[in-house]
Amino acid sequence: MHRIETDPVRQALVRAMTRFAEDSGTHLLAEGVETEQELDVLLHAGVALGQGWLLGRPGPLASCTSRLV
After folding, report:
1. Rounded to an integer, what distance in angstroms lies between the CA atom of residue 38 and that of residue 53?
2. Nearest to residue 41, comparing CAs of 69, 67, 68, 15?
3. Residues 6+ apart with CB under 8 A from 47
4. Per-residue pLDDT tens for 21-49?
5. Global pTM?
6. What is the SS3 assignment for the chain?
7. What whole-number distance in Å separates Cα of residue 68 and Cα of residue 40?
């Protein structure tokens, strides 16, 4: 989430979504994680899954399809 480290409303939303995911037996995935600060806030809020430029660069779809079969 863009600029979550400076936005208490977004932080509250993520905490609520994390609680909902736990209560409903689902997983929450943070998209667009681009900075260490964003990652720190998300981890502190209990988000265990994420994707974004900080965590890994996009690549060709063909390079990952073999893992799906």
Report:
1. 12
2. 15
3. 14, 18, 28, 29, 30
4. 999 999 999 999 999 999 999 999 999 99
5. 0.80
6. CCCHHHCHHHHHHHHHHHHHHHHHCCCCEECCCCCHHHHHHHHHCCCCEECCCCCCCCCCCHHHHCCCC
7. 30
